[in-house]
Design goal:
Layout lengths: L1 E6 L5 E3 L2 E5 L5 E5 L7 E7 L4 H16 L5 E3 L15 H11 L4 E5 L4 H4 L5 E4 L2 H4 L3 H4 L3 E6 L5 H11 L3 E8 L6 E6 L7 E9 L3 H10 L6 E8 L15 E4 L13 E3 L2 H4 L1
Parallel strand pairs: 5-6, 6-7, 7-8, 9-10, 9-12, 12-13, 13-14, 14-15
Antiparallel strand pairs: 1-2, 1-5, 3-4, 10-11
């Protein structure tokens, strides 16, 4: 999804008066509404992975530049950040598309891989720890610790634990080397009482988090989940069996999965 924003003479930021359309041949375009003459383009927000939204954003940014304005592209979920190696090199393909927008600044949230971060021009990264430590709904849960579900989550989980002022506990995934399939989970010894927060960047189907929860022997009365980007596909609704509260942002359209019923922190509250 794409949203465009502009400033008005009174100093407020509003939705820009723009209507995106499509020519009969298929090309994307936009027309301006009557309020556009009083508006200055300032920002475009792209959530999700629809390539057409990147074309729309490019059109908006081109318009802004032609009129002498600077525009930032807010892309909280960087597409293909998990495809940061191999063939095809998906992260590079998407990074090239983002660079082609020629935004004056790009802002992302808790990117999965530093590889993609290095591929994008004029990029500002916003970490998740400060968001976790400033949301009263999270602080009100009074966690006694943060759990990193696997080795890849350790750095962000440690940052979250530091921000919340609690210890961090490491969990590990184990694989059958013959088949490559997950064979189980293990976790450091956890406190005997109190609520713990599992922290990671992306939740797809939720299998890793369910497996971790089951390995700890703890129920939903003691475990909550934070993921920066809620894709919530497949069997993600089963997360409700293991976690009392699930927190995420609206960086990806999957956050709206009603069966997961996550508590949503809008990216507009900390990225704008």
């Amino acid at each position: 999804m794409i949203k465009t924003f502009a400033s008005v003479p009174a100093g407020f930021t509003v939705y820009s008066d723009v209507n995106f359309t499509q020519f009969p041949a298929g090309e994307l375009h936009f027309t301006l509404g009557p309020a556009a003459s009083e508006q200055t383009p300032v920002r475009v927000l792209i959530t999700g992975t629809d390539a057409n939204d990147y074309v729309r954003a490019g059109l908006w940014i081109d318009y802004a530049h032609q009129h002498g304005h600077t525009v930032e592209a807010v892309i909280p979920y960087l597409p293909a950040a998990r495809a940061d190696r191999g063939e095809p090199f998906g992260a590079k393909v998407y990074a090239n598309m983002i660079n082609s927008l020629e935004a004056d600044r790009v802002i992302c949230f808790d990117p999965h891989s530093p590889v993609m971060v290095g591929l994008i021009n004029n990029l500002l990264v916003i970490d998740s720890a400060a968001v976790l430590a400033s949301d009263q709904r999270i602080l009100g849960r009074r966690y006694v610790g943060v759990i990193a579900p696997d080795a890849g989550a350790v750095n962000r989980a440690q940052a979250a634990a530091n921000a919340l002022g609690v210890p961090m506990f490491r969990a590990s995934k184990h694989r059958d080397f013959a088949t490559g399939k997950l064979s189980g989970f293990s976790c450091e010894a956890l406190p005997e009482r109190g609520r713990l927060l599992v922290v990671d960047d992306i939740c797809d189907g939720g299998g890793t988090f369910r497996g971790l929860a089951e390995s700890t022997g703890l129920g939903s009365d003691r475990l909550d989940l934070w993921v920066s980007h809620g894709v919530f596909s497949g069997k993600a609704a089963r997360l409700r069996e293991n976690f009392g509260a699930i927190f995420t942002t609206d960086s990806h359209p999957g956050h709206q999965n009603p069966e997961v019923n996550a508590t949503i922190i809008p990216v507009s509250t900390f990225m704008f």
